[in-house]
Every structure is written in structure tokens, then in C-alpha cells.
Specification:
By secondary structure, this protein is mainly α. The chain has one domain. The protein is built from 5 helices and no strands. Helix 1 packs antiparallel against helix 2 and helix 2 packs antiparallel against helix 3.
Length: 105
């Protein structure tokens, strides 16, 4: 068993413990299960098992969507949005003086 599979099973154990004890909210359990499937997907890609990697990636996306729309953890969602803002495109144009010199040359 690889480290990624062990991490996936650890997330599964946390989700099961949360369901049994009732101490974790439903959307948080969806987040844990999504992380579990994400770890399994990376493990499957590493092993070269592409069909299972596809299935685990789809399950990861579904549970991540349930976590996000179910409320999620507000601090995590805020950090993800802040991180995502850094990658928005910025329009960069050359100054007009530089453009005139290029045309004249």
C-alpha cells in the first residue's frame, strides 16, 4: 500500500467516524470523502490505472461540489477564493510611445 492510499483510507476513517458519532456536519463529511477520492485518484495515476483514476477524479469532483455548495468551511472557501484571485488575467498593453517607435522603424 502506498502513502497516498494510506492517506485516502485515513480520510475514509475520519468520514466514517464523523458519521457514526454525528459530530461532523454533512457537508464536511462530503469534503472528507472528496479528499479521500482525490488521494486515490493521484495514487491510481501514479500506478498507471487510468480507468480507476478517472472514476475517482469524477467522485472527487462530485463530493467537492457537494462540500462547496453545502456551506463548506467558510475560512477554507475564503482562502481558496483569495488564492484564485491571484490567477485572474491582467490586460497588459505596450505604452503608446513604444508603439509609435515600432511603427516608425
Amino acid at each position: 500500500m502506498t502513502l497516498l492510499a494510506s492517506i485516502g483510507y485515513g480520510f475514509a476513517a475520519l468520514a466514517i467516524a464523523g458519521i457514526v458519532t454525528g459530530r461532523i456536519k454533512r457537508h464536511s463529511i462530503s469534503g472528507l470523502i472528496g479528499a479521500e477520492f482525490g488521494a486515490f485518484a493521484v495514487n491510481d495515476i501514479h500506478r498507471g490505472d487510468h480507468l480507476w483514476a478517472l472514476a475517482n477524479t469524477a467522485a472527487c469532483a462530485w463530493f467537492a461540489y457537494q462540500w462547496w455548495t453545502g456551506g463548506g468551511d467558510d475560512d477554507s472557501k475564503r482562502r481558496l477564493r483569495d488564492w484564485g484571485r491571484k490567477f485572474q488575467g491582467v490586460r497588459r498593453t505596450a505604452p503608446s510611445a513604444a508603439r509609435v517607435q515600432e511603427v516608425a522603424a
